[in-house]
Write a structure and sequence with these properties.
Two copies of one chain form a homodimer. Chain A has helices spanning about 5-15, 25-35, 40-55, 75, 90-100, 125-135, 150-165, 190-195, and strands at about 55, 65, 85-90, 105-110, 140-145, 170. Chain A is of the alpha/beta class. In chain A, helix 1 (about 5-15) packs across helix 2. Chains A and B meet through helix 1, helix 2, helix 3, strand 2 and helix 5 of A and helix 1, helix 2, helix 3, strand 2 and helix 5 of B.
Chain lengths: ~200, ~200
């Protein structure tokens, strides 16, 4: 007895393939859409298709940009500081840093992170275009803003060894207690970092 | 400075409209799809569209069915028991009950629940088609399988008062401790129901 008609089951399967969406959430979404107005489903379908067809990557920093545009808005901007380059793993990281409003330099998106276990070496991510970019257009400082994870640290170390010889200052984002955090609940590594990176108060 | 190109932002907005998906999950999904192969997005888009165009409701029980089919598989089946009718709120409830394999009767999907606060009365859900169905084709027993919530209980009470005068036996799903549950952690209402509904052991 087929309790779920095929078109509904297909949608449940398609949702289940997304990260963080299990079979239960997938059915909940499918049955919600079944009850909701057609527009909600069709808008989502249209958005999915046009995201794939209407976006591309910036030729310079590899952030996402509109298809047909060579450079992203940030690279094309004349008001941003050309002497600062922030290296991040993913486009989402650019958005997070932009949201702070505290950074006025430019970006380079690696589109991934070194991970020997998953077979991702320097050739698989945008490391060589970054080194090429720095050789052609040296900057004053490169800020390595990879994630504070094992892979992020490995990638930062690799980049640091490649960029320092070019005579460019290299920095990393500060590690320590998150704002609003609790020392009591901080994990051991974070607390160790916060101690070793303590800053003197004048 | 536009950090997220419009096509990506549109997809994030479309995902955010789904229940249980906030802005953060929506961006995570959108950026995942951006990196994933085109197929994943296109399959989801196609599944969304075809679910809306290729499904319809069973003329008899109001469960979902393929467009063009008058009756769903369960209503059309000749092997199911015609003397038992299980009344549920949503198509998902049919699937849950089917999954148990413990029920061989037919169904009626109310497509909602009575909720005076939200202005949902008997006319807004499939109550009259149910009463009509019972008058034309009386069954031996109606099992009221609405949710054990305030609205579900109200709906069940309303239905019970309408169905009993037709001379049809009416039953409700048992309330009590969930299997695998802990008395220690059971809420007060569940425990009260489990006590008042206790069954003698012979």
């Amino acid at each position: 007895m087929r309790a779920i008609p095929d078109p509904v089951q297909n949608l449940i399967d398609a949702f289940s393939r997304l990260p963080g969406i299990g079979p239960k959430t997938a059915s909940r979404l499918a049955f919600y859409l079944l009850k909701a107005s057609d527009e909600v489903s069709f808008d989502l379908a249209k958005a999915l298709e046009s995201m794939k067809t209407k976006t591309s990557h910036c030729r310079l920093c590899f952030n996402i940009t509109m298809a047909g545009e060579e450079l992203c808005d940030i690279c094309a901007s004349s008001t941003r500081n050309d002497d600062l380059l922030c290296v991040v793993e993913e486009p989402l990281d650019v958005i997070a840093i932009e949201r702070t409003g505290a950074y006025q330099g430019k970006y380079h998106v690696l589109q991934g992170v070194l991970s020997p276990i998953e077979g991702i070496g320097p050739d698989q991510i945008k490391i060589f275009p970054l080194l090429e970019r720095l050789k052609n257009h040296p900057v004053e400082e490169v800020i390595l803003a990879t994630n504070p994870s094992m892979e992020g640290d490995t990638t930062a170390l690799y980049l640091q060894q490649r960029i320092l010889p070019l005579g460019i200052k290299v920095s990393r984002l500060a590690r320590g207690l998150p704002v609003g955090g609790d020392i009591e609940y901080a994990d051991q590594n974070t607390l160790q970092r916060a101690l070793s990176g303590r800053q003197s108060v004048d």
